[in-house]
Amino acid sequence: MHTDKLQMFENRLTKVFRHLKKTARRQGITCYRVYDRDLPEFLFSIEIYEDHVYVAEYQHNHGMEEDEHEQWLEACVEVMVKVLEMPTEKIYLRQRKRKANRQSQYEKLDTEKYEFNVQEDGLTFKVNLSDYLDSGLFLDHRIARKMVRADAKDKKVLNLFCYTGSFSVYAAAGGASLVTSVDLSKTYLQWAEDNLKLNDLYDPAKHEYVHADVLQYLDTLKLNTYDLVVLDPPTFSNSKRMKDFLDIQRDHVDILNKVLLATKKGGVIIFSNNYRKFELDEANINASSIQDITKQTIPFDFEGKIIRKCYKIIK
Questions:
Q1: Cβ–Cβ under 8 Å, residues 219 and 160
Q2: pTM of this structure
Q3: What CATH code is assigned to 140-314?
Q4: Does residue 309 contact residue 278 with C-beta atoms inside 8 Å?
Q5: How many whole angstroms separate alpha carbon 28 and alpha carbon 80?
Q6: Which mean pLDDT values do the consecutive 10-residue runs of the chain (315 residues) have?
Q7: Alpha-carbon dihedral 61, 64, 70, 73, rounded to 10 degrees
Q8: What is the distance between the alpha carbons of residues 265 and 245, in angstroms, rounded to a whole number?
Q9: What are the sequence ranges of the domains in the chain?
Q10: Which of the chain's ends, N or C, has fewer CB atoms near its CB within 10 Å?
């Protein structure tokens, strides 16, 4: 059954894992991506979270019947067990788009909760491999998070679309005088608060959690308030709880200019997004300086693979 192709997959995974594991060990990193759709027939993203492996299979036309696909998945997991030297029960597989009514042995993930804490750069974060599309810690932002910590001392920091608040934790760890975290999801805001508490950083006088639609929230911001802003919006969002839908290509100029109004002179915005075809409309952004820092912020395990853009914008 697909023996030649499975051998190709094993060879590829062995090669990249051997290389990445060394780099991760050298840099003291315990959570990193080892594979991302490297071979066209094996459309997985595989990430190590310390002594766990998180696998997402992307939807594609594999041409297999359901039973055959299940067997093929099992064979792929066996390859991962062998190469990554992880027991099967530590490998969590999700299918990123699942058809309705589809039963699969992997659907046990929907009933069992796989949640635990991991370390990054001396800080602790809760990750969840079972209940959401993503783990709760975007590994590709590792370098950008460090930049925020290095720059946060005594600064007022605003984290928009804060997700699980990893940037907020780094800002607090860097000695920010105020960290405001804003998201439309109460679940993620609670997660963000939990992450701060895990690091003994939580201080209600310094850390605010705002449950809001960011697009509307921007209109309530006071002028010249923040020194450092993290802005990592989705490419597109039309949540029922939002007043308007978000299209980052169409809306980024308006969003950035509103954020710039709330930023102090000389203040910095770290702006990133995942839209593959994104083009920054520099001419219409009211900033004194815009620098594309995409390359500087891509970690070793995402080199040559990542599609997100990242900018440092100074008022």
A1: no
A2: 0.92
A3: 3.40.50.150
A4: yes
A5: 23
A6: 88 98 98 95 95 91 87 95 95 67 39 86 96 92 98 98 98 98 96 98 96 95 98 81 78 97 98 95 98 96 89 98
A7: -60
A8: 30
A9: 3-112, 140-314
A10: N
